[in-house]
Here is the input.
Amino acid sequence: MPSKSVADGLERARLKTPIANAAGGSYVELMKLAEIEHAVLALPDRDRAWLAARLPDTLPPPGTDVSDQEVAQREREMASGEVSAISHEEFVRRVQQHRGR
Here is the structure.
């Protein structure tokens, strides 16, 4: 649970900050992202830890940004032989190689 000061600040931000505009995009009206970062970094360790633990719960699950259209395209590529499957081990090896590990 955050300290009272963090809870109060979050509540003020929630009340003053529109979450979505008419086009469906999100924006922050009163605070720029840099201002939020500055304010958060000034918090005590306990409050920053609480926020760090809480924020992942507000994000969509990984992989939910892949459209049905993209899945269908990839299935067609696999079925046609245009691309071939690789093992999990090969995938990990390639990712590590790409990251320079």
User: Anything to note?
Assistant: The helical segments are 4-16, 33-41, 45-54, 68-80, 88-98. The CA atoms of residues 14 and 63 lie 28 Å apart. The chain is about 55% helix and 0% strand.
